[in-house]
Write a structure and sequence with these properties.
- By secondary structure, the protein is of the alpha+beta class.
- The chain has ten helices and twelve strands.
- The protein has two domains: about 170 residues, Jelly Rolls; about 100 residues, Arc Repressor Mutant, subunit A (Orthogonal Bundle).
- About 45% of the residues lie in helices and about 25% in strands.
- A hairpin with a 2-residue loop joins strand 5 and strand 6.
- The termini are far apart.
Length: about 290
């Protein structure tokens, strides 16, 4: 039976405190921010749905047990504690503390990994750190708390940028990543075949990079990198090569006017066909036809 993972709003059931900051329910891309003041505590916290960054405004000595292993730190202002998702923990501290919790869903860290390394990600875990002296992460968490408290024009855009920044900082220095594919992977055979088939079927139409990426089921950036690894060329040059190859066949095997061949192969006009054809074949299409 799958263990129940608790949401950020459910934490006070196990760890009562005074709420000081609360992010909106919507418009934050799944990221949640909560600020609390807690008294001295000794609490068991069930597995959480999200990765958690605890940024201290006022700290004390913290003891935390995860999987039967206890660690101790004295995180003050400027330090953070990190807890990966889906693990139970026990927290003990002797004095009042004031903290900001930033909850990052699993897909936020996974997306940062994919974009940073251009590789599919199987799993990301935060390292168990009670006291991580990382001012950049602490500052970013407090900036998110400030947006949760005050908001303002462009809040959504700023939150997206800060959440991305926080995820990158965590992945760089405080996370372990399991990848699903080797470095430098290209398109799969199925992806490459689907892209090639689409190009051949739509040579007479406008073919966009975004749509080719959609055909392959990849983001634009990942498609560009993987396509070049698989074919040794860019999607733009590949499409032009296929247009010229089709034009060569039509010029040699049919009496179709060059102006019509240009349109059948996706060129803007005969002049465009001639310019690209000459660059790739070494002669204009009319001469190519005559030589056949």
């Amino acid at each position: 039976m799958t263990e129940l993972l608790i949401r950020p709003d459910e934490l006070p059931s196990w760890l009562p405190g005074t709420l000081t900051v609360r992010s909106p329910e919507r418009g934050w891309g799944g990221v949640t921010v909560r600020g609390y003041r807690f008294g001295a505590s000794d609490v068991e916290v069930p597995p959480l749905r999200d990765h958690v960054v605890v940024a201290y405004r006022r700290g004390t000595t913290i003891r935390r047990g995860v999987g039967g292993i206890w660690t101790t730190g004295t995180p003050g202002s400027g330090a953070v504690s990190l807890l990966t998702r889906a693990v139970a923990s026990r927290w003990v501290w002797p004095d009042d503390i004031e903290v900001v919790h930033v909850y990052l869903p699993a897909d936020v860290l996974a997306r940062a990994c994919r974009d940073m390394y251009d590789r599919d990600v199987r799993d990301v875990t935060l390292r168990d750190e009670v006291q991580a002296d990382d001012p950049a992460i602490h500052r970013t968490a407090l900036m998110l708390a400030q947006e949760a408290e005050l908001g303002g024009p462009g809040c959504g855009l700023l939150v997206d940028a800060l959440a991305c920044q926080l995820a990158v900082l965590l992945v760089r220095a405080h996370a372990d990543v399991v990848f699903d594919e080797p470095a430098g992977a290209g398109l799969t055979s199925a992806q490459e075949r689907a892209v090639r088939d689409h190009v051949e079927e739509h040579l007479h139409e406008r073919i966009t990079l975004d749509y080719l990426a959609t055909v392959a089921g990849l983001s634009r950036c990942r498609f560009l990198r993987r396509f070049r690894r698989s074919t040794g060329t860019s999607p733009h040059d590949f499409v032009l090569d296929r247009r010229v190859a089709r034009a060569q066949v039509l010029a040699r095997r049919t009496g179709m006017p060059l102006s019509e061949i240009a349109l059948r192969c996706g060129f803007a006009d005969q002049s465009h066909l001639t310019r690209v054809f000459r660059a790739r074949v070494g002669m204009p299409p009319g001469r190519f036809r005559a030589c056949g």
